[in-house]
């Protein structure tokens, strides 16, 4: 049994009358990359704030590296790194000054833990005299990660580090996380991009303050046991409308150039659908069985 | 051939010595969904501001919905709609107030506004919520409403800047339904996104790298050209080199 870096039990939080987080439970093993996957408003940031001791839960508890998030918050703050969703470094300090500031606060120096941030920081080091406020989005993100790492935390909390970041930079960012994992750092990361789920060891899919499912990405996909086909015609808008009117349709959602179709019966009768679409006068009809991806699974769980 | 609703020829925009847009040339056709992709900092926002009449190009010939970007920016603004994820509606105004406010800016009469608002609210199933503050609406609803308001004055083109960031997968698809529907009614949609699967919903896509358009075609042809399985691979291949 691996040691658990994060233990969350029945954690709840409300704002006025809105229940932001609803009695959730999950554990993160030491050295694991654990993803909180869900749209805006799912409660991801609220969970983060409670775990990094910036907010007191209404109910339940969170244990980080054996310390209670309420009674032992000072101990937790020393051993975690937190990168909030909103860029919160000092705009009017330079790149280097920001990093030095965070190192000093945690009683260390840039030199002491430089090896840990080298891969990331070396990319922005040529701009170390530039004000943080003048950096591009990708560079800000790298600086924020460097600052969150400079005291060699044992658990890293990354709240939507890749939101609004282009596909290439996102890929690079995940490669950096893999390296950090190899150094033994536990990582809790949130993202609204479903395709990033497969880059985590385990994920919790979250919606409206509830966890829909916790598992490895592969198991989540394997649990999608309905038949599904991908259909394509020359006009996707017309196809969507026609499929929604079809009596056997359970779901029909666009995925790229295709529409993913599931049937009320659980089994897809391709022949019947083909006949139906032919009656709607499509010139090109393409159909293939298709395996569900994380988004298909999320949609299915949302509908349950 | 369909009517060209956006015509861009050799668009250059410089900030000092920095060339943000380096001779962009492309056309967008009426009723098309045109995906405008690129890495962060590639120059998308700069170009989009010029196309919306908010910023002047350094040089180039640009015509938007029949109007010139140097001399007819007011007419451009009247004939386009705009929506972004970052800012869309006033949270401390009600649904009704937001609609009236935006439609009023675009010069619709109170009578027109009232008629069109009733149709819109019943279509979105929001009749009972018309007096609710935007702040009380879930994000997904807000985005759908924001889009509907962006096309409330029947613009020829609507510019959508990352309209679906952070939205759940079902709402994201419902949002694309609205886009399909709008183009079905003759509105051209010019859209930026970081979701590569959404890039495939577009009729044609351009991909910008360091201020230039490095690729422009249908998603299928781009995948073929770059021997890639999906748009994500196309994007990575183009922007990493």
Which structural class matches the secondary elements of chain A? alpha/beta
How many strands, what sense, and barrel or not for the largest sheet of chain A?
A: 6 strands, mixed
The helix/strand order of chain A is EEEHEEHEHHHEHEEEHEHEEHEH
Q: Helicity level of chain B, as a percent range?
A: 25-40%
- Output the number of helix runs of chain B: 9
Name the chain pair whose interface involves the most residues: A-B, 35 and 38 residues
- Which runs of chain A of at least 5 residues are low in confidence (pLDDT < 50)? none
Write down the overall mean pLDDT of chain B.
93
* Helical content class of chain A: 25-40%
For the record, the CATH architecture of the largest domain in chain A stands as 3-Layer(aba) Sandwich
By CATH, the topology of the largest domain in chain A is Rossmann fold
Structure class of chain B: alpha/beta
Unreliable spans of chain B are none
Shape of chain A: elongated
Report how far apart the termini of chain B are: 34 Å
Strand order of the largest sheet of chain A: 6-7-8-3-9-10
The total domain count of chain A is 2
Strand content of chain B: 25-35%
Query: Counting H and I runs of at least 4 residues, what is the number of helices of chain A?
Result: 10
Mean pLDDT of chain A: 94
Q: Which strand order do you get reading across the main beta sheet of chain B?
A: 6-7-8-3-9-10
3D structure, described in words:
The complex is a heterodimer of chains A (304) and B (241). Chain A starts with a strand and ends with a helix. Chain A has 2 domains: 4-216, Rossmann fold (3-Layer(aba) Sandwich), CATH 3.40.50; 229-303, Alpha-Beta Plaits, CATH 3.30.70. By secondary structure, chain A is an alpha/beta fold. Helices cover 33% and strands 28% of the residues of chain A. In chain A, the strands form 3 sheets. Chain A has a 6-stranded mixed sheet with strand order 6-7-8-3-9-10, sandwiched between helices. Chain A has a 4-stranded antiparallel sheet with strand order 2-1-4-5, covered by helices on one side. Chain A has a 4-stranded antiparallel sheet with strand order 12-13-11-14, covered by helices on one side. In chain A, strand 4 and strand 5 (67-68) form a beta hairpin. The longest helix of chain B has 16 residues, at 169-184. Chain B contains 9 helices and 10 strands. The A-B interface holds A 38-42, 136-138, 163-171, 192-195, 207, 236-237, 240, 253-257, 295, 298-299, 302-303 and B 38-42, 138-140, 162, 165-171, 173, 176-177, 180-181, 183-184, 194-197, 200-201, 219-220, 230-232, 235-236, 239-240.
């Amino acid at each position: 049994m691996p040691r658990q870096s994060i233990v969350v039990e029945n954690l709840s939080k409300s704002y006025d009358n809105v229940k932001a987080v609803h009695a959730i439970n999950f554990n993160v093993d030491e050295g694991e990359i654990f993803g909180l996957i869900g749209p805006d408003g799912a409660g991801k940031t609220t969970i983060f704030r409670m775990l990094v001791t910036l907010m007191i839960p209404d109910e339940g508890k969170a244990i980080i590296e054996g310390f209670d998030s309420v009674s032992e918050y000072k101990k937790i703050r020393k051993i975690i790194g937190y990168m909030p969703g909103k860029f919160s470094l000092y705009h009017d300090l330079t790149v280097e000054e920001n990093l030095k500031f965070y190192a000093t606060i945690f009683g260390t120096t840039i030199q002491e833990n430089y090896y840990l941030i080298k891969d990331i920081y070396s990319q922005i080091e040529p701009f170390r005299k530039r004000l943080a406020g003048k950096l591009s989005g990708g560079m800000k993100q790298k600086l924020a990660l460097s600052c969150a790492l400079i005291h060699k935390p044992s658990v890293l909390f990354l709240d939507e580090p890749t939101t609004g970041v282009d596909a290439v930079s996102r890929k690079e960012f995940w490669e950096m996380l893999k390296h950090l994992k190899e150094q033994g750092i536990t990582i809790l990361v949130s993202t609204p991009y479903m395709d990033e789920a497969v880059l985590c060891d385990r994920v919790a899919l979250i919606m409206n303050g509830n966890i829909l499912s916790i598992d490895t990405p592969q198991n989540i996909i394997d649990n999608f046991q309905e038949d599904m086909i991908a259909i394509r015609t020359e006009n996707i808008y017309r196809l969507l409308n026609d499929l929604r009117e079809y009596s056997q349709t359970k779901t029909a959602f666009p995925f790229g150039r295709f529409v993913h179709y599931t049937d009320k019966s659980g089994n897809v009768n391709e022949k019947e659908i083909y006949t139906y679409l032919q009656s709607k006068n499509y010139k090109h009809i393409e159909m293939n069985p298709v395996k569900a991806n994380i988004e298909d699974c999320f949609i299915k769980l949302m509908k349950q | 051939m369909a009517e060209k609703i956006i015509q861009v020829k050799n668009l250059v925009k410089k900030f000092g010595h920095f060339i943000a847009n380096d001779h962009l040339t492309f056309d967008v056709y009426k009723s098309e969904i045109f995906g405008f992709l690129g890495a962060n900092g590639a120059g998308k926002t700069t170009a989009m501001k010029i196309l919306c009449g908010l910023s002047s190009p350094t040089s180039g010939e640009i015509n938007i919905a029949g109007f010139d970007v140097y001399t007819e920016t007011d007419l451009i603004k009247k004939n386009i709609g705009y929506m972004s994820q970052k800012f869309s509606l006033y949270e401390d105004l009600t649904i009704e107030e937001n609609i009236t406010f935006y439609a009023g800016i675009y010069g619709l009469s109170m009578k027109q506004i009232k008629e069109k608002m009733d149709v819109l609210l019943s279509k979105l199933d929001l009749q009972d919520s018309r007096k609710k503050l935007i702040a009380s609406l879930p994000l997904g609803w807000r985005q759908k409403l924001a889009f509907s308001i962006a096309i409330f004055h029947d613009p020829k083109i609507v510019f959508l800047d990352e309209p679906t960031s952070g939205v759940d997968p079902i709402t994201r698809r419902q949002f694309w339904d609205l886009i399909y529907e709008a183009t079905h009614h003759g509105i051209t949609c010019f859209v930026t996104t970081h979701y590569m699967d959404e890039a495939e919903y577009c009729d044609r896509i351009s991909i910008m790298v360091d201020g230039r358009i490095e690729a422009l075609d249908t998603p299928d042809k781009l995948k073929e050209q770059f021997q890639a399985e999906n748009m994500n691979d196309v994007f990575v291949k183009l922007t990493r080199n």
